[in-house]
Write a structure and sequence with these properties.
alpha+beta; six-stranded mixed β-sheet; eight-stranded mixed β-sheet; about 35% strand; single chain
């Protein structure tokens, strides 16, 4: 099974000011890029739905078509449009979390939004979604296409989980894009681990964690120990494992590994490789793994 996570930055090309490749539609560019990954399960972050900046494309549906995904979901807790220099103008008619799937691809209900997606070529038994609340903190961040640092406000986010039927049985994949606020992203990750703990294992958590070093694995392991104080530890294939891989950010000169794939219940011997291919858009590179599971 091949699985990947990719923060697509709403399809923003690597070359600043270039809306799409000349002669190539926004939909076609995204579909071709996703097809080139050749994966069975794909997690996408910073996905647009009907936004002017990305050609008013339903990007989750376009990616699913390129990948040949039989089932997929797109989740957003951010309905509205981006306003340059001012953040987001929210749509008061669509508050909270909304989830869209193949049956919504032809409709424009829900208006413009921004979120994440989980696409599967394998059969999916059940889908789950969770809203991640923001914290009222503004922080200076590097923003693609802008010099220096820009003040950014945290925003509502979503997480998706799919119980997937694989060759050796059921497993759960979780798609995340955590807050950029240090500490708050750890709180979100701890909540996600508790949320999916009742779902069938093995578990795979993939996405843009906005965390560095061993922190994601340590948060997952610590939450497991706190929830099971009688256990003195976990070992073997039951422990949380960061599959590693190359740095993926920024895409033109990767130095940081915000993008991660972590597993519990899958042995290290099942990991057959990791790669980070170059793409024509986004300030992140995708992270791809192949699992013999």
């Amino acid at each position: 099974m091949r699985l990947a996570t990719f923060n697509i930055l709403h399809g923003r090309p690597v070359s600043a000011g270039q809306p799409v490749w000349p002669g190539v539609s926004a939909r076609g560019l995204l579909a071709d890029a996703v097809e080139s990954l050749g994966v069975d399960v794909l997690v996408l972050q910073e996905v647009d739905r009907f936004q002017e900046r990305s050609g008013r494309v339903d990007q989750a549906a376009a990616a699913a078509a390129g990948m040949g995904a039989g089932d997929w979901r797109y989740a957003s807790a951010l309905h509205g449009v981006p306003v340059p220099g001012r953040g987001w103008a929210l749509d008061p008619e669509v508050p909270g979390l909304r989830v869209y799937g193949p049956g919504d691809a032809a409709a424009r209900g829900g208006g413009s939004s921004h979120g994440l997606a989980l696409l599967c070529r394998l059969p999916v038994r059940r889908w789950y979604a969770r809203q991640l609340a923001p914290v009222s903190v503004r922080m200076p961040l590097r923003v693609a296409g802008r010099p220096g640092l820009a003040w950014a406000q945290d925003r509502p986010r979503a997480a998706l989980a799919a119980v997937v039927e694989g060759e050796y049985g059921l497993f759960t994949v979780v798609a995340v894009h955590l807050s950029f606020v240090p500490g708050w992203n750890a709180v979100q990750l701890a909540g996600i681990r508790r949320w999916v703990s009742v779902l069938p294992g093995p578990h795979i958590v993939a996405g843009d964690f906005n965390m560095v070093g061993p922190l994601p694995r340590l948060v997952l392991a610590a939450t497991t120990r706190m929830d099971h104080p009688t256990r003195r530890g976990t070992s073997g294939c039951s422990a949380w494992r960061d599959l590693g891989g190359e740095p993926t950010y920024p895409s033109h000169r990767p130095r940081v590994r915000f993008d991660r794939i972590l597993t519990a219940g899958i042995s290290s011997g099942a990991v057959r490789g990791m790669s980070s291919p170059s793409m024509p858009f986004s300030d992140h590179k995708p992270l791809v793994t192949e699992l013999a599971w």
